[in-house]
UniProtKB/TrEMBL annotation:
Residues 452-461 have a biased composition (Basic and acidic residues). Transmembrane segments: none annotated. InterPro entries: NA-bd_OB-fold. One of its GO terms (molecular function) is damaged DNA binding. Residues 420-461 are annotated as: Disordered. It comes from Brassica napus. This is BnaC04g56580D protein. One of its GO terms (cellular component) is DNA replication factor A complex. GO terms for biological process: DNA replication; double-strand break repair via homologous recombination; meiotic cell cycle; nucleotide-excision repair; telomere maintenance via telomerase.
Length: 461
């Protein structure tokens, strides 16, 4: 078989057809065959003149490699009638042009560009299996690093918190007629490893979101959007849809599976509870024959282990976001159930699991997503330094509880300070006695377990 001038040799299939895999596509002309599934295609327009630059495509081959495709404006009419999302094609002859550095949707260095002698045909009898899609999920840190540089467009999957400012507790109904006028819809979404982000869906993406969201009988809570751009709006990281963006689904089983794949490792490494001493609630560790309380001031020698809350939650108001840690009574007030009760219920329903098995995040905690509460927190210098950077909740109050003024909080703290002990629910410096408390595993915590004896914390809405 003769080598092509680009130095690449086509491979042969079982039927002796000559074709090339995407991983072998290099820059320059190629007189060979490609086989691929068309994931998506969209018009690329000049942002100023609004004229069509060409037709862009996202393609995937049988090895699962994704590459971007491009049809110049003068050749769109020739190929557009045959293009259908999800169909499998054969392409003979193309040019490997350099992948653009701005707003990239694929990692490949090359773009498959249609040329004057390109021949496209539909494969009706598909000889092998082609994946239907391939996603590029990244962490919140990657979104931050990519912010405002107009580089890669990443995909995002997560839980919806607000839709145009409305919570999902009382299902919102996006108005398609209104969105036709405003041209956008704003969704607050949270992926598994980051804070809540504002996601602005524009034009076709907004219309597709409304159509899918309103089509479900039950309120969808999950969202998967592809090719979003990261921008800083008003000093806050935000995501915006672009021309290649797709609303894959809002709450479908596919989205749930993708989200579960992302959060499963996080659930294992960041448990929502710990085993505490039945007396002082400090962390209990395994001894030779029994559990041992790590608090040196605790009088219990052989303690009974009791599951206690230690769950990190992402909270936000109208302008900012923070990470709170729920401990003890605060977790019970939020969920309405003790941590020990939830752990016991899980093992009763899953009797085959061993005692060391980590209980996954319960529905009682998951169902609190989207709720509004008034939190009392204890803020110390440690909250803004070190690795934890989380604020511990000491109380959860009803929304109609009036917020204390700064003067009243100061008076209350002064009155209670004498003889008061630090709360086990407050993030503070380690206890000098050496006891390891509920949040010591997160590097800092206090040693007492009674939140009512602590200095009164300041309240946050």
């Amino acid at each position: 078989m003769a080598m092509k001038r680009n130095g690449k040799s086509p491979v042969s299939s079982d039927t002796d057809e000559k074709f090339m895999f995407f991983k072998d596509v290099s820059l320059g002309p190629h007189e060979t065959q490609l086989r691929f599934r068309l994931i998506h295609f969209w018009e690329a327009r000049n942002p100023v003149k609004k004229t069509i630059i060409g037709l862009e495509m996202l393609l995937i081959d049988e090895q699962g490699t994704v590459i971007q495709g491009f049809i110049p404006p003068g050749r769109i009419k020739k190929y557009l009638p045959d293009l259908k999302q999800g169909s499998v094609y054969r392409l003979n002859n193309f040019y490997g042009s350099k992948n653009k550095p701005m707003y990239r949707v694929a990692d490949h260095i090359a773009t498959v560009s249609f040329t004057w002698n390109s021949e496209l045909s539909v494969l009706h009898e598909i000889p092998t299996c082609f994946d239907e899609d391939r996603f590029r999920f990244h962490s919140y840190e990657d979104f931050e690093a990519n912010c405002d540089i107009k580089g890669d467009l990443y995909d995002v999957v997560g839980h919806m918190k607000l839709v145009n400012g409305h919570t999902l507790i009382e299902r919102p109904t996006p108005d398609e007629v209104k969105i036709d006028t405003t041209r956008h819809i704003m969704v607050h979404v949270q992926s598994h490893d980051g804070p809540v982000m504002k996601l602005y869906l524009w034009d076709q993406a907004a219309a597709d979101f409304c159509k899918k969201f309103n089509s479900y009988d039950n309120t969808p809570t999950l969202l998967l959007v592809t090719a979003v751009n990261t921008k800083r709006l008003g000093g806050t990281l935000a995501l915006t849809s672009m021309s290649p963006s797709r609303i894959i689904s809002t709450g479908s089983a596919q989205t749930r599976r993708l989200l579960i794949k992302q959060v499963s490792a996080d659930v294992v490494t960041k448990p929502w509870y710990y085993i505490g001493c039945s007396g002082c609630h400090a962390k209990a560790t395994k001894g030779a024959t029994s559990l041992v309380c790590t608090n040196t001031k605790c009088e219990k020698i052989n303690t009974a282990g009791v599951p206690q809350y230690r769950a990190k939650i992402s909270v936000y108001d109208n302008s900012d976001q923070a990470v709170f840690v729920l401990l003890g009574d605060a977790g019970r007030v939020l969920t309405g159930r003790h941590a020990s009760e939830l752990v016991s219920s899980y093992f009763e329903a899953n009797g085959s699991e061993g005692a060391d098995h980590l209980v996954p995040v319960p529905e009682a905690l998951i169902s609190t997503i989207g709720q509004t509460h008034k939190f009392c927190v204890k803020v110390t210098q440690h909250n803004f330094s070190g690795d934890t950077r989380a604020i511990t909740v000491t109380k959860i109050l009803s929304l109609d509880t009036p917020s204390p003024t700064e003067a009243s909080v100061g008076n209350d703290i002064a009155a209670m300070s004498e003889g008061a002990t630090q709360s086990g629910d407050a993030v503070c410096e380690p206890h000098k006695g050496g006891g390891v408390t509920a949040d010591e595993e997160s590097k800092r915590a206090c040693s007492s377990a009674d939140p009512e004896t602590a200095k009164r914390p300041r309240c946050e809405n």
